[in-house]
Amino acid sequence: MSFIPSSRQTILTGDRTTGPLHIGHYAGSLRNRVALQYDHDQFLLLANCQAITDNASELGKSEGFRAGKGPNHVIEVALDYLAAGIDPAVTTICVQSELPALAELSLLYLNFVSVARLERNPTVKEEIKLRGFMRDVPAGFLCYPAAQAADITAFRATLVPAGADQAPMIELSNEIVRRINRQVQKDILPEAKILTPPVGRLPAPNGKGKMSKSLGTVISLSASDDQISDVVMSMYTDPDHIRTSDPGRVEGNVVFTYLDAFDDRAEEVQDLKMRYQRGGVGDVTLKRRLIGVLQGVIAPIRERRFEFGRRPDYVMDILATGARKGRAITDDTKRCIEDHLGIFRLR
Amino acid sequence: MSFIPSSRQTILTGDRTTGPLHIGHYAGSLRNRVALQYDHDQFLLLANCQAITDNASELGKSEGFRAGKGPNHVIEVALDYLAAGIDPAVTTICVQSELPALAELSLLYLNFVSVARLERNPTVKEEIKLRGFMRDVPAGFLCYPAAQAADITAFRATLVPAGADQAPMIELSNEIVRRINRQVQKDILPEAKILTPPVGRLPAPNGKGKMSKSLGTVISLSASDDQISDVVMSMYTDPDHIRTSDPGRVEGNVVFTYLDAFDDRAEEVQDLKMRYQRGGVGDVTLKRRLIGVLQGVIAPIRERRFEFGRRPDYVMDILATGARKGRAITDDTKRCIEDHLGIFRLR
């Protein structure tokens, strides 16, 4: 019996396991999770089932797997978590496919949401367009917000750190929560709040759209000093800033966006921006600074990642422990919902 | 190691657990299952998850449950199976919600079928119209054919006894089987064949549409002699057959349809039809014959049902044994599919 008041919030977040994470994930989510983990009950989901919803045709192709494509990069992402500073003693890392209650609740929740409601989801709409699915959208892709609701509620999460574009997902989850609570006339599931990151989504180094593995110019969390240097030296700045003495633009200048995201000395960056806008600061000066900053961020992550990569048994132990803990809480939530809905259960 | 050639077919079939079964189920499916069970590996699924796909709003309402509505009538249907002669020593009776692999495979299969493909399913189309769902169709209802494919393949069924209207479901299941087998370049899943029953769907006693619990005039498998008599005496015959001496119509005459389905003395029924058509046979004569036949069919079922109903522990033991066997085979199929698709698994 514990007398510690349970005012701690439960966090659920995670990643589709479609490949190793990159510095954009670090800026937007990973480092926040590291900061949040000691004051919250944090669960990280390696979402390898959700990863299939738009990658099913890649399954079973070992070539694709080796080339770093496809939805089966569970270990890669787990290594990224540990390397970035996720502490498995306080954060529970779970592999989605190891928790059957998530699939069972997903299927149940599909009965509490209409096809029209799923089709109205703006994020899914946008992603359907982006992936060129149109009418051939896989049913699993249309339905994944219901599966996400299962993830969130199965862990009884009250906080979901995610980009602002994920707000409609969390709203749908809360709709399902309210419908079930109303139907059983008891608040058996908590609603969740979104927690948007302080740093928005980083642009691709070439300035075109968001960072994406498929563009090939991302900085991975195991990038070498030379790779970091190469990517930064090719970064988009201000195409009209020809000579050092020319005034330069800061808005849309990817190097400054990255400096804002990663450079701890914010005042120096502010000063640099003013001088760049006036004229007299060359792009190479900016880029050298960013290279130094990024190399400083990446080096310890890369080293830890290498070390963890040499201890596969240790990583598997962490995932096994996470699966045990995750099964306990998600099975418990599932049983609670089933009991209240009157669904048959063998004792 | 067994040297018995495995030429036996595996059967999967079952019922949504939306209420006790009636004499229409007996004629169309139950008695065939009893006949098939000794020569096949037969699994019967108490489909309490599928039952939710068009009944979610009934969940958690104990009133509805007591009134015989809602999707939670697992025990009722199990009693019907046992009473009708299903032998748990040779037929495995499984409760759907006790087999998590079915939900996991359902969710996986949703990635292998497009929304457009599900919407084209003629049976689902028809049922959506029938239930008045239109655009508010629950996602679970649109998706249930993929869940049925999971049921069929998880048991590696090769024969699915079902009405002809279920043919599109089995075709979809086979499509998913072919797609997965092609993708992993190995026939890891068998295709299934439909086995349509010799007797078609029985009409409602009033001759309007198919038998349906909600019409209130079905003959349940625990109907008393008086209840049987009452329903048959009110049955639709030939409205133009006023006097005994009038010639009567056989087509559309519900009493003859039921006699065809249940009366073992087919030659006598043929003779009766000829005499009825000529004139000289009264409706009461027909109905008295049918009452006798149906009372003879129902009496032993009703008695066994009563006896099993007094032994709930025995029934629960049968379901527990079924769940154990069902989990073994469905988990095994799921693991086989996951391994071939390269999905992560601990150990």
UniProtKB/TrEMBL annotation, chains A, B:
Keyword annotations of the record? Aminoacyl-tRNA synthetase, ATP-binding, Ligase, Nucleotide-binding, Protein biosynthesis
Q: Where are the transmembrane segments?
A: none
Pfam family example for this protein? tRNA-synt_1b
EC number(s) from the headed UniProt entry: 6.1.1.2
Report whether NAD shows up as a keyword of the record. Answer: no
Keyword DNA damage annotated: no
If you read the UniProt record, what top EC class would you report for this enzyme, in one word?
ligase
| Organism domain of life | Bacteria
* Family note: Belongs to the class-I aminoacyl-tRNA synthetase family.
The UniProt entry, under PANTHER family, shows: TRYPTOPHAN--TRNA LIGASE, MITOCHONDRIAL
What is the protein's given name? Tryptophan--tRNA ligase
The species this protein was found in: Acetobacter malorum DSM 14337
